[in-house]
């Protein structure tokens, strides 16, 4: 083959994006929307200037965290669909400390982050425990817990935690000591933390025993048992880690530029799953895909400013994802095999 | 609590249960054929929107219902092309379908939000049965789609357990190579099953928007598609056992809707906490079933969510 093995997936993805754009152009024409103006607005609004790029990264940040969270679980083939709920519980945990205690700066922030991560991990632990001990399908239990988490935060924001005197479902502002340091006008330090976590996960998967065990469990439970790797232990550890990382998405949203609890924008948890899959559960590729998605989302905002229906971006996204799903599946099947046969891409 | 209120609540539960039952019946057939369609939530949203749009455009509810079924079938075709033909991962394809349905329905539904459907499905009491005391008004004074869901339970049971194609479909979910060797076309079985299941999900969405809530709202399915998926597991992949689970969840939804009216302890519980209830109930039931399933080794079709390829036979 002319194309080296490792280039198959990226090329398939690029081709899929192009096909997706072509298809959405046709769709846009069908619904009588200006095609070039739409793409133009998305491009300049999301990449055209430093400010625009920064706004794109603001969208990319939580997706990077939920994407990394999904990658950890999916590598072990544990289907954690609960990134959304773990993110919300992360925000809740952060608020729990930030709104109820006061400490000097570094301790306060540390306590806020740790508490958020613990709550996210708890929300990851529940479906893991249900799966390991009661055989409950983790797709459904983690998903149901998303709704529980969202309603729980709602009940607080419309109830005891609502800012005194305010009509909107916002909490009071967090003290400055509980805020993440800012980078630039809109970004916070999370934009650095996400790559650090990605590198850490990359090293974990590649160089550690534990990362190897995760891959074995992900490829075959039977092989794992023969190698006396406990599938239950890996499932629980992977879900704790995944929940904790997903929680960072929530912590970053409330302790970043918002600085208070609010009803989080829904969907980042689910986007993380897609992003992770598109990236082949490779942590560094997850970052790239998160940025790609951030650009699309910021493109939606840009459309609104250009007075074009922002939901058009969703159609473009959908078209791209469908082609990428088909394209990456086919690419992994028909790419040249190495000597030893490998298991098909999940 | 007097009997009239009780009858009203139980009759309401039957109505609230119907979309769950219809969607779950469809998914049951899909899963029995070996395909896992997690995209029900998205298909229901598109079905709900299509039904409202078509009903408002033509003024006829029947057109709305059939458009929703057609929209569901189309999404089903898309899903089966991805999972059966291209053999993409079922879980990822399903989630994509949810995002797709959510995105498209909220995009196309802007102009329709809060527009009431003029003439929605109304109750058609069945002559003799509806006069049965207590049970009559609960089960037999409902709209036609509710009756349709009863019939479908029986029809799907009959199809799966008493016909040869039904046997082939069940076998395709357990051991597709054997079905292939026996001369049945596994791909065709799975394509048709997925399209059928997605049409049912579209219909379930239509029921929500034109027979239950009477208008379109963004994200109006509110997790019902996922609850339907859980119901299939509770029922142990058996159509008749779906009835009980669906009615139980219908009852839960009605309790939430009526909690303020009911008074008593419900008055003091925040509505947000109440709204968690169906999901917590679903998890609790999955846990209860899970334990039993582990003991008795009953459960999912053996080839569920495994793409079938002839060359790997």
Summarize the structure.
The complex is a heterodimer of chains A (346) and B (313). Chain A is mainly α and 346 residues long.
Explained architecture:
The complex is a heterodimer of chains A (346) and B (313). Chain A has 346 residues and is mainly alpha-helical. Chain A has a domain at 64-279. Helices cover 72% and strands 1% of the residues of chain A. Chain A contains 13 helices and 2 strands. Chain A has helices at residues 8-30, 35-47, 50-75, 83-100, 105-134, 138-157, 190-207, 209-219, 221-226, 231-258, 268-278, 283-305, 312-334; strands at residues 182-183, 187-188. Chain A has a two-stranded antiparallel sheet. In chain A, a hairpin with a 3-residue loop joins strand 1 and strand 2 (187-188). The two termini of chain A are 23 Å apart. Chain B has 313 residues and is mainly alpha-helical. Chain B has one domain (3-301): ABC transporter involved in vitamin B12 uptake, BtuC (Orthogonal Bundle). The model of chain B has no long low-confidence stretch (mean pLDDT 84). The A-B interface holds A 79, 81, 130, 134-137, 139-141, 143-145, 147-148, 151-152, 154-155, 158-159, 270-271, 273-274, 277, 309, 311-312, 314-315, 317-318, 321-322, 325-326, 329-330, 333, 346 and B 38, 78, 82, 86-89, 91-93, 95-96, 98-100, 103-104, 106-107, 110, 223, 226, 229-230, 233, 270, 272-273, 275-276, 279-280, 282-283, 286-287, 290-291, 293-294.
């Amino acid at each position: 083959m002319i194309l080296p093995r490792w280039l198959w997936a990226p090329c398939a993805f690029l081709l899929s994006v192009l096909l997706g754009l072509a298809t959405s152009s046709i769709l846009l024409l069908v619904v009588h929307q200006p095609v070039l103006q739409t793409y133009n607005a998305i491009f300049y609004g999301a990449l055209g200037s430093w400010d625009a790029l920064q706004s794109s990264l603001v969208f990319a940040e939580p997706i990077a965290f939920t994407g990394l969270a999904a990658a950890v679980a999916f590598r072990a083939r544990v289907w954690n669909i609960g990134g959304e709920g773990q993110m919300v519980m992360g925000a809740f945990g952060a608020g729990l400390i930030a709104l109820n205690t006061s400490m000097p700066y570094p301790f306060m922030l540390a306590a806020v982050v740790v508490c958020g991560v613990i709550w996210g991990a708890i929300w990851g632990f529940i479906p893991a425990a249900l799966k390991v001990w009661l055989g409950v399908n983790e797709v459904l239990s983690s998903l149901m817990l998303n709704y529980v988490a969202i309603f729980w935060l709602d009940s607080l924001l419309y109830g005891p935690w609502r800012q005194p005197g305010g009509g909107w479902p916002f909490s009071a502002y967090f003290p400055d000591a509980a805020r993440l340091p800012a980078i630039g006008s809109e970004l916070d330090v999370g934009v650095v933390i996400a790559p650090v976590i990605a590198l850490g996960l990359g090293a974990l998967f590649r160089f550690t025993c534990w990362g190897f065990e995760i891959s074995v469990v992900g490829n075959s439970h039977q092989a794992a048992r023969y190698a006396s790797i406990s599938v239950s232990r890996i499932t629980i550890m992977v879900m704790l880690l995944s929940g904790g990382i997903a929680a960072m998405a929530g912590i970053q949203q409330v302790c970043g530029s918002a600085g208070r609890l609010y009803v989080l924008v829904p969907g980042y948890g689910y986007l993380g799953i897609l992003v992770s899959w598109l990236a082949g559960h490779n942590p560094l590729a997850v970052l790239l895909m998160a940025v790609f998605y951030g650009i699309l989302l910021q493109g939606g905002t840009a459309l609104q400013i250009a007075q074009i229906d922002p939901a058009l971006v969703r159609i473009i996204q959908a078209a791209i994802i469908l082609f990428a799903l088909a394209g990456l599946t086919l690419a992994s099947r028909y790419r040249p095999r190495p000597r030893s046969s490998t298991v098909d891409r999940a | 609590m007097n009997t009239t209120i009780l009858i009203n609540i139980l009759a309401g539960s039957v109505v609230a249960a119907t979309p769950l039952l219809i969607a779950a019946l469809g998914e049951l057939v899909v899963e029995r054929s070996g395909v896992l369609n997690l995209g029900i939530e998205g298909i229901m949203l598109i079905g709900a929107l299509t039904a409202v749009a078509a009903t408002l455009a033509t003024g006829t509810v029947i057109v709305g219902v059939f458009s929703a079924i057609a929209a569901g079938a189309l999404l089903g075709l898309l899903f089966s092309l991805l999972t059966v033909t291209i053999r993409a991962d079922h879980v990822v394809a399903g989630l994509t379908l949810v995002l797709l349905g959510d995105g498209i329905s909220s995009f196309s539904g802007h102009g329709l939000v809060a527009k009431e459907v003029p003439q929605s499905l109304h109750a058609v009491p069945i002559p003799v049965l509806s006069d049965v005391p207590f049970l009559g008004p609960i089960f037999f004074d409902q709209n036609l789609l509710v009756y349709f869901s009863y019939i479908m339970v029986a029809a799907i049971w009959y199809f799966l357990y008493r016909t040869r194609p039904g046997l082939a479909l069940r076998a395709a979910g357990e051991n597709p190579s054997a079905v292939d060797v026996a001369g049945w076309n596994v791909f065709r079985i799975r394509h048709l099953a997925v399209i059928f299941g997605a049409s049912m999900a579209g219909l379930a969405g239509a029921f929500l928007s034109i027979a239950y809530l009477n208008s379109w709202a963004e994200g109006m399915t509110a997790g019902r598609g996922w609850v339907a998926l859980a119901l299939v597991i509770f029922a142990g992949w058996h159509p008749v056992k779906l009835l009980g689970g669906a009615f139980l969840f219908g009852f839960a939804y009605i309790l939430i809707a009526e909690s303020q009216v009911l008074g008593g302890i419900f008055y003091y519980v925040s509505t947000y906490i109440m709204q968690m209830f169906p999901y917590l109930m679903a998890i609790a039931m999955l846990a209860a079933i899970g334990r039993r399933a582990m003991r008795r080794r009953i459960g999912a079709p053996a080839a569920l969510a495994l793409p079938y390829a002839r060359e790997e036979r």
